Amino acid sequence: MSGQGGERRRGPDRRKAQATEPAGPQLVLCPHCGSMVPAGEFCGHCGAHLTRGDAGRRHAFAAVPSEPVVHLSIVSTLFPHLPHRRGGAFRWALLAGAVLVVLLAGFHLFTPATIAADFLLPVLYLLYVYEVEVYDSEPWLLIAATMVAGAILGYAFASLTGGTVSGLELSGDTGSNFLFAGIVIPIGAQALMLAGPLFLYFYRAALREPLDGLTFGAASALGFTLATMLTAIWPLLAGPLVGSGSPVDWSLRLLNSGILIMLINAITTSLVTASVWLNRYDLRHAASGWEASVLTTLVVAFGAQVILGILSVVVPDLVLKVGIHAVAAVALLVYMRLVIHQALLAEGAAHEIGPDAACPECHRIVPTMLFCPACGVARAAAKQTRMHSAGGS
Asked: Is the pLDDT of residue 387 over 50?
């Protein structure tokens, strides 16, 4: 009898527990993709801004929604997996590296200044890959292999061409062979920078996200450019520690070759590889524009390299040459952000509403989908950093 009473006493508890079970997130119909998604600022399926009715959402960059798409930022563009809160350290590191190059050149320490300029972006990129743990199972193998393969190709290319690729930038010697220095070398260099990532495209089909292609492209270009620069300056490394020459000229040449040209090469290569990876998706119903197509990115990448190669030959003034590369780097950065944004928005394959979890970008508890319903960040770009993971554990 007491057992029956116990059952009767537990009965209301069971009914109360069933009544308090969560009913799941409130769902609304996205007017852009037609999916039933959790209510919020953004559609968790296609990434459109629900409250503004804006499918393109140019005011909220898909990788870093706190920034607009048209925005000048090397860190959030070249390092799209990096959360916005962690970008400040990399921005300060990039600025400090540039200042260090200028200071070393000002003290006529041209060899250390050259080394600092050439290694600045590659080292920052490796730190970025380590920080965001882009590939948990293979954290270094793929990126290191791509960068090393690019470096090997860069060394071979610079050796075969007599160091012309970076020698023109360091010495200011434009040469007399316009066709070779202005057209053949830029096209050949860009093709070799694409070789390693395109091999991975067919060898590792499981890595199918556009940001995978972007990461491999940037790593290959940075390794290639670093090797060509080091090949050209190798005789300088055996010289005296304190050199002779104008510190201003050396500062401009090193910032041009070590930062601007390396940045341009990383962008042009990443543009093509991101668009190639994007074609793994069924884009028939995606809102991807012509800007992210393979043909367009190929024309932009090779066209930019040829135009800059020709201008490097015909423009003798160093200040004007640096200014041209700076303008090109800014334009390519903005275009790269547009390609990344469209690639992330075009990934919208069918995706179920997952369990509630903290968004890696805004840290709000939201249903797990392709896009965070609260801040709109693409889950393909949002990664947990090592510092955040350590704090959570």
From this structure: no
